[in-house]
Write a structure and sequence with these properties.
By secondary structure, the chain is α/β, with parallel strands linked by helices. Helix content is about 35%, strand content about 25%. A hairpin with a 6-residue loop joins strand 8 and strand 9. The radius of gyration is 18 Å and the shape is globular. The structure holds adenosine-5'-diphosphate and magnesium ion.
């Protein structure tokens, strides 16, 4: 079942001197429980698309259809934790803003399930990059969103941590039964995590291809990287992307 239908999004940015087309003709549907990755070179318009999809920005034209009872949650670049707040207070931030502390028990449960309960009264600087990312995810999950929007969530982490954290975050998203849309410039990350990969062109961003990722044995992101079909998709997507060197 499609829970989000996006049709012909266009975004024109107006600057002081001129205007330019950032995104054109962007359409796709998201199914319940599906994990979609959007990949493309830096500056092509990925964040623009994600901000429009999650309602932080408006398109110049096009439509986005979804049941208005659905809740959205987003995790932007980096972890955006506030150092002056404890881990617990960081996790409650979204609920405080919504004046909805009913979900406090859910936050407690998430912190316990994902190994952060004993750190709840410490501050973010005491945690590793991976743990901070998990806190950030719990903060996003606290409002019980149906769809998660992730903008290059692991880009601040070093390579090894990035692999471990993407595995971790993926398992949590699946276990909590969420649908997700993630933008990234990392082809491997996209293939290893997503059911469907949307490949973007350079600016203005248009869709080059949408691939259904059919691995021999789809398990977790780290294991998926070793799959027989992984290199096949990597090659296809690599050839699609116009990297300027
Ligand atoms: P990506 O996330 O793929 O790196 P962005 O969506 O951030 O790309 O940006 C796409 C293009 O739009 C870039 O050229 C960027 O400079 C420009 N851009 C982004 N936000 C704005 C804005 N608010 N006003 C004008 N131009 C913008
Ligand atoms: Mg971006």
């Amino acid at each position: 079942m499609d829970i989000l239908k996006v049709k012909n999004l266009k975004k024109i940015y107006h600057t002081e001197k001129n205007e330019f087309l950032a995104v054109d003709n962007f359409s796709f549907n998201l199914k319940k429980g599906e994990f979609v990755a959007i990949v493309g070179p830096s500056g092509c318009g990925k964040s623009t698309i994600l901000s429009i999809l999650c309602g932080l920005d408006n398109p110049s034209s096009g439509e986005i259809k979804y049941d208005k009872t659905l809740k959205f949650g987003y995790m932007l670049q980096g972890d955006n934790l506030f150092e002056w707040r404890t881990i617990y207070k960081n996790c409650l931030l979204g609920l405080e803003i919504q004046n909805n502390l009913e979900n406090k028990n859910y936050v407690n449960k998430l912190l316990k399930t994902y190994g952060l309960w004993e750190f709840k009264d410490t501050h973010p600087s005491h945690l590793s990059g991976g743990m901070r990312q998990r806190v950030s995810l719990i903060r996003t999950l606290a409002t019980k969103p149906d769809i998660l929007f992730l903008d290059e969530p692991f880009s601040a982490l070093d390579y090894q941590t990035r692999l471990a954290v993407s595995d971790d975050v993926y398992k949590i998203i699946k276990k909590e039964g969420k649908s997700a849309i993630m933008v990234t410039h990392d082809i491997s990350e996209a293939i290893s995590m997503a059911d469907k990969v949307i490949v973007l062109s350079n600016r203005p961003s248009t869709i080059k291809h949408i691939y259904d990722i059919n691995l021999e044995n789809k398990t977790t992101p780290i294991e998926n990287r070793k799959d027989k079909n992984f290199a096949y998709y990597y090659d296809l997507i690599w050839k699609d992307i116009d990297y300027h060197v």
